Amino acid sequence: MPEGDTIFRAVRTLHRALASKTVVRFRTVLTHLERVNIDTPLAGRTIERVEARGKHLLIHFSGDLILRTHMRMNGSWHIYRPGERWQRPARDMRLMIATDDFEAVAFRVPVAEFRTAAALARDDVIQSLGPDLLDPEAELEEAVRRLRDRGPMPIADALLDQRALAGVGNIFKSESLFVADVSPFASVASLSDHTLRTIVDTARQQLEANTHDPIEPRLAVAGGVRRTTRSGRPDRRLWVYGRAGAPCRRCHTPIALAKQGEDARLTYYCPRCQHVTGEG
Ligand SMILES: [Zn+2]
After folding, report:
1. Whole-angstrom Cα distance, residue 96 to residue 98?
2. Which of 5, 71, 91, 214 has the most beta carbons within 10 angstroms of its beta carbon?
3. Is residue 55 flagged as an active site residue?
């Protein structure tokens, strides 16, 4: 599952390249998309805007047609100039939207479908999403309330629950809990509202800071070079993520690794620094 900052950068890049441009060509290997394209062609439509809803990327076309994609683990969107060599094999292409200036190519997106505005408004997955931490209008108190509803769930799992809040993936889950000194195993019910608020705030700041990093402009989604510490050194960018066995940057205790939740998602943490395990 990509982090919210990845989606944010992909949306920003795609929006800048495509918004208010006319589609001159559309190609896809996905038959359910091609069927729509044959019945009601994409070519000739205007791309109105590109936006994120949680980790879903929405491209709005004129004539009430919305393309919803989800990148999950392996999907990505790239932007190329016409004729420029793609950086992924053509066999990985799932769909391509061309304007006079750009080709937007989705590689290996596991979810891609056309919806109307009305159908999207009825879509339970979209409608049940919690506040998106990268949305400047997001209500952080609402995210805290929705986390609170997760009761006995360990905080590390609750942070990944898109119905509670959207934007946090595995990296910022581990990094925000470390900075907030909270054990990933603490149940949501055992943590105070103040602590939940601190975690949400920290995750939001970390995500936000990573939307400003320069990225390779042609790759809408390259993963980027994330940073949660203040260090510019490549080997010091993150507090705990990916550092199992390495010494904690604060106390030198070896960073621990656990698998949590139904999907056995990796959690990196410092057993010593992350001492908040419950506040009664
Ligand atoms: Zn430590």
Report:
1. 6
2. 5
3. yes
Separation of CA 247 and ligand 1 centre (Å): 8
Q: Which of 55, 103, 154, 173 is catalytic?
A: 55
For Cα atoms 223, 227, 231, give the angle at the middle one, nearest 5 degrees.
140
Do 66 and 117 meet the contact criterion of CB atoms below 8 Å apart?
Answer: yes
Determine the distance separating the centroid of ligand 1 and the alpha carbon of 254, expressed in angstroms: 8
**pTM check: above 0.70:** yes
Give the containing element (helix H, strand E) for 117: helix 117-121
Could you give the CA distance from residue 1 to residue 168 in angstroms, rounded to a whole number? 9
pLDDT digits (tens, 9 = 90+) for 214-257: 444 443 333 446 788 877 677 788 999 999 999 999 999 999 99
**Residue 206 Cα, ligand 1 centroid: separation in angstroms?**
19
Distance CA 108, CA 112 (A): 10
Radius of gyration of the chain (CA): 20
- In the numeric block, which tokens belong to residue 187? 């149940």
Q: Give 180 Cα–ligand 1 centroid separation in angstroms.
A: 12
Read off the pLDDT of residues 205-221 as tens digits, 9 standing for 90 and up.
Answer: 998 888 875 444 443 33
